[in-house]
Amino acid sequence: MKTLTFKIEINAPKEKVWSLLWGDATYRKWAAVFCEGTYAVSDWEEGSMIQFLTPNGEGMHSVIEKKTENEYMAFKHLAMIKNFEIEPVDPATQEWIGATETYSLTEVNGITVLEAKVDSTDKYVAFFNDAFVEALSIIKKLSEE
């Protein structure tokens, strides 16, 4: 497992970037780069479960490991989801269990730096390298409108 890091500077306050990251309608816009129609089901509170789902019911079952409002969100992936059901862990999914995904926001003089880190297997490094760059660009565009 490799940890990939992505950063972008956004000309907007971190509170606005935060709301665009995790608001349902705007989350769907930037997360669509990973799979069209992607959405999340959660109350978005620290310690709560969250499911990242595609329209056909595939995705990740995770926990919000840490949340600091307007500054930091960390997810720990616990299981895969297929047909809207949490799958038992098997050798094929074991490599993803415990993977983390974090988002941090720091603001200086009205410029917010958004940093995303994601654990990835070798198989998905190229995909994430492309998708995260595109996702952060969408977040930047939405935030600066």
Question: Could you characterize the architecture of this molecule?
Answer:
The protein is α+β, with helices and mostly antiparallel strands. It has a single domain, classed as START domain (Alpha-D-Glucose-1,6-Bisphosphate, Chain A, domain 4), CATH 3.30.530.20. The chain contains four helices and eight strands. Strands 1, 2, 3, 4, 5, 6, 7 and 8 form an eight-stranded antiparallel β-sheet that branches. It is globular and about 50 Å long. The chain starts with a strand and ends with a helix.
Question: Can I get a quick summary?
Answer:
With 145 residues, the protein is an alpha+beta fold. It has four helices and eight strands, in the order βααβββββαββα. Strand 5 and strand 6 form a beta hairpin.
Tell me the number of structural domains: 1
Instruction: Specify the biggest β-sheet.
Output: 8 strands, antiparallel
CATH superfamily: START domain
Shape: globular
- Topology as H/E string? EHHEEEEEHEEH
CATH topology: Alpha-D-Glucose-1,6-Bisphosphate, Chain A, domain 4
Q: How much helix, percentage-wise, in residues?
A: 25-40%
Q: How large is the share of residues in beta strands?
A: 35-45%
SS field, number of helical segments: 4
Q: What class do helices, strands and sheet pairing give?
A: alpha+beta
> What is the second-level CATH architecture?
2-Layer Sandwich
GO molecular function: kinase activity
Protein name: 2-keto-3-deoxygluconate kinase
Keywords: Kinase, Transferase
InterPro entries: START-like_dom_sf
